[in-house]
Write a structure and sequence with these properties.
Layout (H helix, E strand, L loop, with lengths): L4 E3 L4 E3 L4 H6 L1 H19 L9 E4 L3 H10 L4 E6 L10 E7 L2 E5 L6 H7 L5 E3 L2 H10 L9 E3 H8 L7 H8 L13 H25 L7
Parallel strand pairs: 3-6, 4-7, 7-8
Antiparallel strand pairs: 1-2, 4-5, 5-6
Helix pairs in contact: 3-4, 7-8
């Protein structure tokens, strides 16, 4: 449930908790239920889904370095592999702004990415143990202490809610249910994963501001 918004030509569906579950444990689902209801109301009033970012595929190293330099506050990264047990890179996507993502599908063109992963800038991940494990298995140098995991953050901020990417995205942004539409380009799927991870991170930062907290630092 909570797998983002599903649109058809005539109807739009916003997944949320089953009413019977809410009656059983209102405290657990109340926050996300209200977010999903507000999203449905906004859509009914004409709000469009969040615009997906422009995607640069295998960008030239100078262009990629320029983008990384502009993402001073950090960026999200996501890897795609043949399976959860085969640590072979199919593609890597990064996103550090709501309107731009970069994806690499050619390992020979990942020089700028390799350098960026060694930097002290924050890298935001979802289930980072997996991504870090893949990078290490593929010979990338990185500093695990610069990684920030939205799955762990979600478990701390909202311990009674699911922490998978689809659910967290359903509370942080509004996009189509991309997790169920893998028949398209893998690089686009990868880029949306990175983009939603970044949007979740930004939404969490706003929640710190709303509660006068200092945030993850």
């Amino acid at each position: 449930m909570g797998a983002s918004t599903q649109r058809s030509p005539k109807l739009t569906f916003v997944s949320t908790w089953h009413p019977a579950y809410l009656f059983k444990d209102m405290a657990r689902g109340a926050r996300s239920f209200l977010i999903h209801v507000k999203k449905a109301v906004d859509i009914a009033l004409g709000k469009k889904e969040d615009k997906l970012p422009k995607i640069l595929v295998d960008p030239p190293a100078p262009e990629a370095r320029k983008v990384f330099k502009s993402w001073k506050d950090g960026w999200a990264v996501d890897v795609e592999t043949p399976s959860l047990t085969e640590f072979k890179l199919l593609s890597v996507a990064v996103c550090g702004s709501p309107d731009l993502a970069m994806v690499w599908t050619n390992p020979k063109k990942m020089g700028a990415l390799r350098a960026a992963l060694k930097s002290k800038v924050r890298k935001v991940v979802q289930n980072g143990d997996f991504d870090i494990g893949v990078f290490r298995a593929c010979g990338f140098e990185l500093d695990p202490e610069t990684f920030w995991d939205t799955m762990i953050e979600g478990a701390i901020l909202h311990p009674d809610e699911p922490v998978n990417l689809s659910f967290l995205a359903s509370c942080a942004c509004d996009t189509h249910a991309w997790k169920f539409q893998r028949e398209g380009n893998l690089y686009e799927y990868n880029a949306i994963d990175a983009w939603t991870t970044w949007m979740i991170y930004l939404d969490n930062q706003r929640s710190y501001d709303d509660h006068s907290c200092t945030g993850p630092d």
